[in-house]
Amino acid sequence: MSKASDYRVIVGIDFGTTHSGFAYAHLKNKTDISIYIDWPEYVGRLKVPTALLYDDDFKSVLSWGFPALAKRPKRKKESERKPVELFKLHLGKMKDKPALPEGFDYKKAISDYLREFGKVIKKKIAEEWDINFFTQVLLIFTIPTEFDDNAILIMRECIYTAGLLKDRYSRNLRFITEPDAGAIYCMKSLKEHNLSVGANFMMVDCGDGLVDLTTRQLLEGETLSEIIERSGGYCGGSFVDEEFLKFLESKVGANAISQ
């Protein structure tokens, strides 16, 4: 089992509802943070779509990321294939979860996506440093405040199944809520705005699935206190898109929207 002293590289991973990305840094130079942008068929973008395209039996991944959305059917049979998206939302407590193919387990989608995503991480880290990925790399995943202990356990299991951990209980994985991660970043950059100890600020994280809020106070020694308990809700960008399409459908009809 790895100890904190074994870590050489930290990888921050944003597994998002519609897009995902990662950044990395060596502990010898923590401020030199690199954001990965060399995605397959999506070079230059900070994040890649959180999407999968499966075969007809939903057993094998044909493509992921941007290629999963960009694929055009060449045969009539292929036209029935649709990318699997929004599966991260199944980890939450929302009542009306996005539809998935009948009999398809959202945990498989998460594991399959993180497996492909993880291949990119492993390849990049190996190109940069000659280290042991499973013992010398610390993975930090951001999660919504809405995730309960069960959702976090499922995430850990999926990350292990994806081949990013040596064992299920590896210490090389940590979670941080998205508002907390944002607040820490703001704390480091507040000096540029001449905010002093005792200053209060609010973090609003408007994602594609959830919107998270947290209010913090800057304390001595670059630490933060929480003024009001963090809160979040399912009113992110994907839900705005869905409501807009419903509005358009009410105006022009379902046939026009489906085309």
Automatic annotation (TrEMBL):
<protein>
    <recommendedName>
        <fullName>Hsp70 family protein</fullName>
    </recommendedName>
</protein>
<dbReference type="InterPro" id="IPR043129">
    <property type="entry name" value="ATPase_NBD"/>
</dbReference>
